[in-house]
Amino acid sequence: MKDRILFWIDISLIQFGIAKALQEKTDSDFYVIYDLNHHLKKSFLEQNIVDFEKEWYFWDHVGKIQEVNTQYLKKIEKEYKINLWEIAFSERNFHKYNPFYKFSKKEILSILEQECRFFEKVLDEVNPDFLIIKTTDFHRNYLLTEICRAKKIKILMLTAARLANTASISSQSDKIDHELDKKIENKIKINSFNEMREYFKNRSKSKQKAIQSAGMDYPNYKKIFPAINWITKIVDSKFGESYDHYGVTRLKAIFHYFSYSIKGRMRKKFIDKNFNRKINLNKKFLFFPLHVQPERNVDIDAPFYSNQIETITNIAKALPVDCKLFVKEHPAMRFRHWREIKEYKELIALPNIELIHPSLSSKEMLENCKMVITINGTTGLEAALYEKPAIVFTDTIYQSLPSVHRLKSLEELPEAISESLKKEVNISDVNEFINLLERNSFNFDIDGHYNEILKKFHKGGFMISDEIDMNELNSFFEEHRETYEMLAIEHMNKIKDYKNSYAL
User: Could you give the domains of the chain?
Assistant: First the structure.
């Protein structure tokens, strides 16, 4: 019997390339949900790159606000064991990061109901064996994966691994499917922390170039014609029908663009004036690196700690009397025009907190701190390389390290800090974990490849295209044939592992 594979394809286009390569190598039935705007839908309607048995366009099924059937939503929560409000609050468009529109309770629940009904309809019709999807970054694709998980549909999520320029395929982002792990003799055997740090130096995520965000690195002179095209063509009568665009008008968008550019400069001036560029090595301190926000690692993975200012305030309450907490801003927040100044002032007002300038090296912080506290950042893993314990606030891939404490409630934070400060890091534990990562990842720079796609098709990330030439897209996949064939083989291997493990 043929495998039935459902794909989620959006503007990143990587899963589309994987589908093309997989179809050349397997005899399976392919289905697709496109998360593309109505302009791009026209480009994909008659594509012949991949032969899908059936295709759906997400925005054709989620639109006008309707009366809410609360009983249906309660059934969804019970049947799939999900909390819909938790998912809703993870959505950046529903929450405080949307400058254009404030969603009502009815609107949010109506959208969730339409999405659930659509996903149930597709899954009941297709009855897929596998879902191939990118790292979930919006509530809608996250909701789909959670429904699939409850229905025992195997998820193949391509995600960036914790080592630079590597990727993994797993059922959840930042997780290892331990039941599929091929436990073999460790290939990597490192005898000292100095060697471990050297090994990790070129594999640190901090060395990896971030995804281009909002086209901030895109030259201004190249933004003129796309901006004119957006104003005159893209913002049409159907533009505002998708909830991603509620409240967006030409005038508001232009005002927002220039307003946030100005605010970003003002915030940077505040940072330069008020944040410490040097650390006092005579002070005993713990290290908290701020996460970029909005970002799925916090908003989806740790929704109850997504207010980082509140989280830091709670850490401050739990600190030993002889310790301070050094909080370092993430340099990539420049892509978000930094945080609001009032948030920085809230942190400055805390007597046992010091704010560290984003230009300061995290290496210097790791070398001199007593411990790292992070929601789920890679710095918690890097702490082990410097023989420092760590506390994390949500499930993360490296929490299996004995030196890492997974916090279960805020009330235990004072004791967790006190006990963690006594912990020692063993090189053997770090060796085991590094080998676990290596076994369950492969060489592929997702962010770098996505940057190529943004540059080629989406104005460097400045603006999502309203049209993609399918011949150009196919040529791009052919130019990167070796990469997509590798990705196809990795997905085939994962499918094989699932079948062997679960007797599918």
Answer: 4-186+193-199+442-502 (no CATH), 277-438 (3.40.50.2000)
